[in-house]
Amino acid sequence: MLPPATPDLLGAAPASKPEEPHYVGHRERLRERLLKAGPDALADYELLEVVLFRSIPRKDVKPLAKALVDRFGSFAQVLTADPEQLAKIDGVSTGVIADLQIVAVAGQQIGRRALRGRPLLSSWTALLEYLRTAMAFAGREEFRVLFLDKRNHLIRDEVQGRGTVDHTPVYPREVAKRALELNATAIILAHNHPSGDPKPSAADIKMTREIVSVLDPLGIVVHDHIILGRDGHASFKGLKLI
After folding, report:
1. What pTM value is reported for the model?
2. Is the alpha carbon torsion for 150, 152, 154, 156 positive or negative?
């Protein structure tokens, strides 16, 4: 006696493979657009999706990307958002936060490298682009000092302090001490205004003039103090405040 016929022997179609999740094809299409057309072809939330692909490999990340942009305002602002604020968003793990910070740091490193070996006063566009990338979208104030040698080449770029949304404590004598340690002959000051408005406050002007008065007897020049906001920047030298 012959064994019972199997479905295949009877001509039945083989079982179909499980369909891939819809987001798999979406990810490939998004990557292809990025590679062929460049980042300008993608919306902010789509750029963020590409970053999140690595952090969250088996889930549709579009809702999270849109939620992050809605909360913080833009791709750049998400990258530089405070980790504590990021962690409050449902779906944001420590892995997501780490990957966002890696992208942000990479952008800053590229900008800093572009300044190396060049006189900063003749590389103003590159300097502003670097500072904008580094701090314009941060959720808290940061005070940064760029220490320069006698050729106005960058020796070191250091964050001297981080504060609240509208204040960063700055100690002029600490700035002077660090400049002497690095044998700097000039500095450029920079800080951000998370409010978005780069207009110098009375406290900004007072603090800058205090730093100038401490450094001047030491022969260290303050070339400028630049304030970064989301919508632009203000230069103390341009405004004739120093």
Report:
1. 0.67
2. positive
